[in-house]
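Possible regression after last week's pipeline update?

I re-ran a chain I had predicted before the update to compare outputs. Posting the input and the new output here so someone can diff against the archived version. Not blocking, just want to make sure nothing changed silently.
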Amino acid sequence: MDWEKSLSSIGGPTVKARKAMRRPPRKILGALLDGLAEIKANWELEGFPTSNVESPQEEPQGEGAEVDGEDGDSEDFGPSVFDREDIEIAIDVFISHLVQEGIIRKLGPSERPSLSDIVERFFSEDHEISKKAREFEEHIKGYFDLVGYDDMQQAYGLLLEMTGMIQTEAKA
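New output (post-update):
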């Protein structure tokens, strides 16, 4: 019999299970939400049409349903590529916000955590929010420091999902 299972049957969930279930205090959740709002605002500043992404699950109804225009293309997409550096700056502002709020300690010049590092610190590596943060980072990698429209759209959708998940955690 697995020793973790035997321990969990005696005294509750295993250490790994407790770590995966942990929820940060409301102050931290609020700071994370404020920081994610700043990152999302970057999309608008860059000219990314966030209104096209607000409801990624919504699909046109019916066979002949059109999204925008005759062939489903929108004329107000904005730029087709985005500078990765601008996204990184928004994430750095997010991290600075957490330092100013006293959520994390001041970092040295050689220390540069990623968004997923920050999220994993407060939830766990296995938490769904951490998985979304890692997916987000994959989408903003880009090529030659440029991020394509589709990756920006996916990354923005993941930001919305992470925000919703943290809001749910804050209400619980």
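Follow-up from reviewer: compared with the archived run. Residues 1-10, 54-72 have pLDDT under 50 and may be disordered. Marking as no regression found.
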